[in-house]
């Protein structure tokens, strides 16, 4: 049985990993070659990504993976979060470490943008949900606050594509990643001249857009020599991590309608559509049209996911109590239900720092009782997130005009089984979870489609279903959850 190896570099906001995907006999196995911590650094009072350190970790991982595969690798691809970018100068090098999307420089940029072009006009031109972290507002902040930096720049390259550029030397903008920028016309899949003109941004910085499943180059001779391998092809996959995760959703259309939820630091809930949906309802509910693989659109809503709980855990660690997520989940399960409602979309919860303290302020401002017990706080966070999922699912069904039968959840968040059960309860729908490593799997399967080793997206999803065990959650206590949703979600 022939085995084909691919290397996936999967970058998340908290961690990165280099994975080997081995395809043989209609099944796909993953082997972790390297894992490392990721996160922002502070430079000159601003939040940035430490590009050099991360690239060093990526190279360590790829070198290790190449050795584990005896040098026989069919492709390498990188995926990451969206919106962030690096600016490349005339010498082909990064001008400075890329900004982190949580940096405060964009705090007032939505208002600044609306002075130049109306909110509805932006949505009509881009079809994207409004978030101050979007590339459009990061670039506007740069133009207003640091115009000299833009003047030095020759190219803007999004995060995953930036690491691919340093591997192979090709400048490009992968479609799914570029689609998160709010600078693209999602009806046409090309850069929006209106957005660049109205925001007075330099469109000449933007690279050519390439589709998922495009071989964009090969490892440079220098990089290949460093890894001790041939010039392995570098492939643009669904380089936005959610696009790769959705590509690996093991859904079967014959079993009814389905939606997906990519669960991690962020939660992204939506459906696949053949074209962008930009209308009064999607504008009202602030749904986003992002690029998917194989000529699809991911109509979805960005929801603050497990970030709030992750930040609480980090604060508890700083305070001297190092609780595992398993311990926190057990404490939450034993806590009293519905003592308070914590809205994960509340603005102050977006920022890093003392999250338990921010939550206490939120509870005070919303006339709710203070929560000092850690398990109780964790439960309230998870309940609030599940209730938000119910609200978003209602909006989604209103947009598509029919009821959705089941929800597929993929990503690291499925390891929080309490949240998965809460989600089934809140939605009053069957929830199917798995796989955890959906992003890496989608990355690898799109590489296999690019090389011709997998014929289609349908075949790729069947391979996932054949390779990984899924778990099903049935709804319970649905009347209670509906009542709490009616009480809390207005």
Features:
Nucleotidyltransferase, domain 5, alpha+beta, 4-stranded mixed β-sheet, 19 helices, 2 domains, 490 residues
- Spell out the CATH superfamily of the largest domain: ATPase, nucleotide binding domain
Largest sheet: 7 strands, mixed
What level of helicity do the residues show? 40-55%
Q: How do the strands line up in the largest sheet?
A: 17-18-16-15-19-20-21
The low-confidence parts are none
Structure explained in plain terms:
The protein is an alpha+beta fold and 490 residues long. The chain has two domains: 4-240, ATPase, nucleotide binding domain (Nucleotidyltransferase, domain 5, 2-Layer Sandwich); 249-434 and 455-490, ATPase, nucleotide binding domain (Nucleotidyltransferase, domain 5, 2-Layer Sandwich), CATH 3.30.420.40. Helix content is 40%, strand content 22%. It has 19 helices and 21 strands. It has helices at 51-68, 109-116, 119-126, 135-145, 147-152, 159-168, 175-178, 193-198, 221-227, 241-247, 280-285, 307-318, 325-334, 355-365, 374-400, 417-427, 438-451, 457-467, 478-488; strands spanning 4-11, 15-24, 27-37, 40-43, 46-49, 75-79, 85-89, 153-158, 173-174, 184-185, 190-191, 209-210, 214-218, 233-236, 258-263, 266-273, 288-291, 297-304, 406-410, 430-433, 471-473. The strands form seven sheets. Strands 17-18-16-15-19-20-21 form a seven-stranded mixed beta sheet, with helices on both faces. It has a four-stranded mixed beta sheet with strand order 3-2-1-6. Strand 4 and strand 5 (46-49) form a beta hairpin. Helix 13 (325-334) packs across helix 15, helix 15 packs across helix 16 and helix 15 crosses helix 19. The radius of gyration is 22 Å and the shape is globular. The model has no long low-confidence stretch (mean pLDDT 96).
